[in-house]
Amino acid sequence: MKVRINEVGPRDGLQSQGKTLTVESRLSLIQSLVKAGLKNLEAGSFVSPKAVPQMAGTDELFALLPERSTVRYAGLVPNMKGYEFAVAAGANVVNVVLSVTETMNQKNIRMSLPQTADVCVAIIERGRREGIAVQAYLAVAFECPFEGLVEPAVVARYAKLVKQAGASKIIIADTIGAANPEQVRRLLDAVISEVGSDILSCHFHDTRGMALANITVALDRGVREFDSSIGGLGGCPFSPGATGNVATEDVVLLLNSMGHDTGIDPLDLIPVINAAEQLTGVSLGGKSFRWLSQPSAKVAGEARHGG
Question: Residue ranges of the Pyruvate carboxyltransferase domain (predicted)?
Fold first, then answer.
């Protein structure tokens, strides 16, 4: 069974770092990820550099992205102006974010929940008219750092809204890493009853160490796409408690070990993690990093592939 890995390190991973990388450094990270087999990447965001200085120059970055014909690059946009910048820069996939609680929207983008929903719907509908795939993130889908637990019915309602508008993908985001497997089951059951599973993807943080368990539940519910970040890099700078995303190497190893086809060898990710550490100055590596770095992991990999 094919499962798509969407690498978010170059955007979601880097935007929360204290160190701001140059466009050239961000490009080198993306080049390393593509070389390692990643075919779906969130390359950056078209936001004001005053709000997120780590994402300055994303338009320049998009002009330099490698293998545009075979690699799918997405850019996050906060509003219609961001959408226009993204399309002008050559993006053919854009991401919008709809936090499903009022307070998170106010804290994040200073708009109400209804206003944010209207903006997202308008961008999705325009993208559909103009041939641009618009993916909708439903943020703080399980728990909000300001309002607490979120009812599955609320998430299902907004999932239906963005699907009807024409979203190409709906990403259920555990923004602060608060979800447990039972919550994932209940929420996905509610959402799938409204929109089906084919359109869904999941974005988990490993704040409480449950991301991999949550992924296995989502797999059982028919989800076949997951966000991850190389070495577990990143977290949302506007969301208290949102530590690193689930590590790409952990997700790839989990899925490959279960017999799913990711098209990625986790051993190829080790040099990328090391490069990301050097660029950011942050210690990186998921649960499997130490094992993957040992010679025994290489031997095990060769045995699986008949080497």
Answer: 3-270
